[in-house]
Design a protein that fits this description.
The complex is a heterodimer. Chain A is an alpha/beta fold. Chain A has one domain: ATP synthase, F1 complex, gamma subunit (Pyruvate Kinase, Chain: A, domain 1), CATH 3.40.1380. Chain A is 61% helix and 11% strand. Chain A contains six helices and five strands; from the N terminus they run H-E-H-E-H-H-E-E-H-E-H. Chain A has helices at 4-57, 91-106, 120-128, 146-161, 194-197, 211-286, and strands spanning 76-81, 113-118, 167-175, 181-189, 206-207. Chain A has a four-stranded mixed β-sheet with strand order 2-1-3-4, sandwiched between helices. In chain A, strand 1 (76-81), helix 2 and strand 2 form a beta-alpha-beta unit. Chain A is elongated and about 115 Å long. By secondary structure, chain B is an alpha+beta fold. Chain B has two domains: 4-86, ATP Synthase, domain 1 (Sandwich); 90-133, ATP synthase delta/epsilon subunit, C-terminal domain (Single alpha-helices involved in coiled-coils or other helix-helix interfaces). Chain B is built from two helices and ten strands. In chain B, strand 8 and strand 9 form a beta hairpin. In chain B, helix 1 packs antiparallel against helix 2 (111-133). Classes of the chains: A alpha/beta, B alpha+beta. The interface between A and B is medium-sized, with 30 and 29 residues. Chain B: Its main location: membrane. Chain B: Residues 88-130 form the ATP synthase epsilon subunit C-terminal domain. Chain B: GO terms for molecular function: ATP binding; proton-transporting ATP synthase activity, rotational mechanism.
Chain lengths: 287, 134
């Protein structure tokens, strides 16, 4: 049996750990709150841009733009959104596992794909496995601005326009609720599903100067905002995942402290009993 | 006087929503003025200032970095990657961005960087213009 002092020091250290996890839980909770607001602020923009894109795409006129047409796939790009820091439960590992599996299912050689990780954990994961990394971004703020990721988003879109890649997928954790997040992998480019996901356009527009010019300017902006949307969603999931993980850690610490206190008291009692027995034994020997 | 509702939205959230009598902006084909009752229209905007004229109250000026104008008979929506009122523009930051872009333009490297620097310079100049004009 561990000595009284050992148990005591374990209790103290567990208590300290609990304080930290508790603090992290609360920090994540407030960040989650903010991330949710960010996602809400972003929604009107997304809806509007989707509506305009859909009304052009469904306008009945022939629209011809490379971003709307599938072409034979020689190389695929994957954007993977992970966090910079750990301690977020299964947040990173579930995304990375899914991406890794999909890549291995779809491709046999490293020339057929390239990865664009966002977040340090993802970058390290792919770098360690010697997978081709096209470009990367790490150290993103907890509440990223559109300007923060504009460069990498337009670069990814540019890769597609240059025909360096012929498909672009994005993998991230979709925020369902504070306790559930699910991994989502969607095809970003080419934009083949616009017409199906949008409802009937409310009005038909005049285009100034013409549809092609508009599409040329609008589609990259649309794709970039999809990437930003995924990032905002991913950030909300990250904070939620971290909050849940830290809550679990705090609960575990509580349980551990209870157990340890119990065995501490038992040990204390045993020590006292032993002392009494010794005194009584000593006194009996004197008689 | 009839008015139209103007809303300016960016990925970072709505910037403004109010009624105005006229919107004048710079599209890629030139200046564009929108009055209430305009036919539905979509036009790309250049990096420029958008002027919103209200009745009695003075007009508002907004710096947009590209984006779109969507017009419906009584509603105008501006979708831009960034949009700021002159009072929200950070003069120092714009100045720094301008200098950075100019430096980059002088050390010509490859095409993409050049284009990007050019756009950055345009955005910075636009911000400075509006800030100083207000």
């Amino acid at each position: 049996m561990a000595s009284l002092r050992d148990i005591k020091s374990r209790i103290t250290s567990t208590k300290k750990t609990k304080q930290i996890t508790k603090a992290m839980e609360m920090v994540s909770a407030s960040k989650l709150n903010k991330a949710e607001q960010n996602a809400k602020a972003f929604n009107p923009y997304m809806e509007k841009i989707q509506e305009v894109v859909a009304s052009i795409a469904n306008g009945g006129v022939d629209v011809d733009h490379p971003m709307l047409k599938s072409r034979p796939v020689k190389k695929t790009g994957y954007i993977v959104i992970t966090s910079d820091r750990g301690l977020a439960g299964a947040y990173n590992s579930s995304v990375l596992r899914t991406v890794n599996r999909h890549i291995h299912e779809r491709h046999s050689s490293k020339d057929e794909y390239t990865v664009i990780p966002m977040g340090r954990i993802g970058r390290d994961f792919f770098a360690k496995r010697n997978m081709p990394i096209e470009s990367e971004i790490t150290g993103l703020a907890d509440q990223p601005d559109f300007a923060d990721i504009k460069d990498i988003a337009s670069e990814a879109v540019q890769l597609y326009s240059d025909e360096t890649i012929d498909e672009l997928y994005i993998y991230y954790n979709h925020y369902v609720s504070a306790i559930t997040q699910e991994v989502r992998g969607t095809k970003l480019l080419p934009l083949t599903n616009i017409s199906t996901e949008a409802t009937q356009p409310k009005s038909s527009y005049e285009y100034e100067p013409d549809q092609d010019t508009i599409l040329k300017a609008l589609l990259p902006q649309y794709a970039e905002s999809l990437i930003y949307g995924a990032l905002v969603d991913g950030k909300a999931s990250e904070h939620a995942a971290r909050m849940t993980a830290m809550k679990a850690a705090t609960d575990n610490a509580d349980e551990l402290i209870d157990d340890l206190t119990l065995s501490y008291n038992r040990a204390r009692q045993a020590a006292i009993t032993q002392e009494i027995t010794e005194i009584v034994g000593g006194a009996a020997a004197l008689e | 006087m009839k008015t139209l509702t103007v809303s300016v939205v960016t990925p970072d959230g709505p910037v403004l929503e109010d009624s105005f009598e006229m919107v004048s902006c710079k599209s890629e084909n030139g200046e564009l003025g929108i009055l209430p009752g305009h036919i539905p229209l979509v036009a790309p905007l250049t990096i420029s200032g958008v002027r919103l004229k209200g009745g009695e109250q003075s007009s508002e000026l907004i710096a947009v970095s590209g984006g779109f104008l969507e017009v419906r008979p009584e509603k105008v929506t501006i979708l831009a990657e960034s949009a700021e009122r002159p009072s929200d523009i950070d003069l120092e930051r714009a100045q720094r961005a301008k200098e950075r872009a100019e430096r980059r333009l002088q050390t010509k490297q490859d095409d993409i960087d050049f284009k990007r620097a050019e756009l950055a310079l345009k955005r910075a100049l636009n911000r400075l213009d509006l800030k100083q004009g207000s």
